[in-house]
């Protein structure tokens, strides 16, 4: 830990994951994922989350659907059979053939849209730099749902409050790693300090590229994934295809960057409309 | 109530924490509606195969979440706009010091309070946990429009009630002799009105900023236009509400009505201009819900046609008529009332369309990818 920067300003040169002293998070290396969903199960078990769907979605092996109030880890399955105008790709890449799997999760953004939107202060940043919704404060207003650039929090149908991944806050305080990372049999999910993980991600991308996976890149630095004022993600990914393939936005923005400019534009309009009303009424 | 309903649904599907569901059928029908089960809701999703959808997105599953807001919030946006707008107009009319405009001020103050009164209830009922509504007042966050809006609503509630009470005292509604009435008439109504004009304008316009400060493509892409657009709409609705009240009341001078009508035309023109500008700026992919399907039709015929175009035309005609026969009577009064009703209906529809179109654009992966594709 070398940097002495204040906790609020995310750091890291462009292209690097945000370096926040002491921040803990995940590196999810999708090239190692085998789609076993052990992370999903471990998460549900540890956090006591109910099942939310028995049935088939028809979306490859993904019968979970997406992240939500009762699903805090979600493994995506992308069968790239539709490449090249509907034909199967002729050449396979060295890893995962053309079947991509990724375990998605709350990104615990350095500047979190959900947290800035929350009007009750229920969403807080913990001492581990993770973002947690305090269940005894949340009143279910629903503003964090559209405020998250990644579609993570959701209002539960059973208790009316917003829920999402807590980075296993209870386990962290007891010195344990989060349940999903613990359960992952291939170490696709790696837990640790952000600066270590960032280095590891960069190395991994370099080595993958060397071995012919040209599309390998980090998702979650300030260039891709943690862009637009988000300041990097504390849960980032090594991907081998464009982010959209995994249902991730390429260059998301922190929505609240727009608040103050929006107020100012509205105030300007108010002055103009007010003056228009005054003069148009007063005129004889 | 919504919360209670959801709790019941939850009980039917086996309770909240880890309990096994009674049966699969129960679990699925008991209130759970996951996105992939409903993705054909919009016109676009229907009839597309998984292979089709996976070519352009992740099986058509939305990458972002839409808010759960529906009727309660739409109605709040509408009434809050009218409350803020008519208060502002009442104060401005008072500032002009034209004695004839006393009627505008009076109507504006009463309408403002009447529109404001149900809004807290609407907002509270929309919460997942209505009993915890006061948690909104734990913190103040400038960058969260919902937080600033809640505080503004609280402050404005006080000022709006005070102004309406002063007005009532001046009108003698509270009795001439009673102590409170005598105290209230001594208060400087104009200054209270001037103070309240700031939260009033904010309340009328911030809802646009609240929607813009999200990841929903249709709301956030033109974020600079959203506040002014909602403000213009709120002011046109408020002007229409006051004009309607005065047109129905006896003894309103013809000139006052004509002035109000002209002002309404100005606001309507501004609203139409901002709406069209925002739509053009959104671009083809993101503005799709405004063009297609039921909401698109409501946007075109309801908002642009019946809510903006027709009242503007009516007002134009009646203004012509006024000019040709000064002091003409009933016909133009009727036209004013009719135009006002159309504007008021269009204002509600405008909020319905924007909220629903935003929800559809949140469900459309292409819209989000278009918004976030970067340079
Ligand atoms: S990914 Fe979404 S829910 Fe998670 S911290 Fe960021 S904004 Fe909040």
Give a quick set of tags describing it.
heterodimer, A: 284 residues, alpha+beta, Alpha-Beta Plaits, 2 domains, 4-stranded mixed sheet, two-stranded antiparallel ribbon, 8 helices, 10 strands, 27% helix, globular, disordered N terminus, B: 375 residues, mainly alpha, Formate dehydrogenase/DMSO reductase fold, 0% strand, binds iron/sulfur cluster
Q: Kindly state the mean pLDDT of chain B as a whole number?
A: 83
- Count of distinct strands of chain B: 0
- Write down the CATH topology of the largest domain in chain A: Alpha-Beta Plaits
Largest interface: A-B, 89 and 107 residues
Instruction: State the total count of DSSP E strands of chain A.
Output: 10
Helicity range of chain A? 25-40%
**Helical residue percent band of chain B:** over 70%
Low-confidence stretches of chain A: 1-18
Give the gist of this structure:
Chain A has 284 residues and is α+β, with helices and mostly antiparallel strands.
Describe it for me?
The complex is a heterodimer of chains A (284) and B (375). Chain A is of the alpha+beta class and 284 residues long. Helices cover 27% and strands 15% of the residues of chain A. In chain A, the strands form 4 sheets. A 4-stranded mixed β-sheet of chain A has the order 8-1-10-9. In chain A, strands 2-3 form a two-stranded antiparallel ribbon. Chain B has a single domain, classed as Formate dehydrogenase/DMSO reductase fold (Up-down Bundle). Helices cover 72% and strands 0% of the residues of chain B. Chain B has 16 helices and no strands. In chain B, helix 11 (223-248) runs antiparallel to helix 12 and helix 12 (254-286) runs antiparallel to helix 14. At the A-B interface, strand 2, helix 3, helix 4, strand 6 and helix 8 of A face helix 1, helix 2, helix 3, helix 4 and helix 7 of B. The complex binds iron/sulfur cluster. Residues 106-109, 112-114, 131, 148, 150, 152-153, 164 of chain A line the site of iron/sulfur cluster. Iron/sulfur cluster (SF4) binds at residues 106-109, 112-114, 131, 148, 150, 152-153, 164 of chain A.
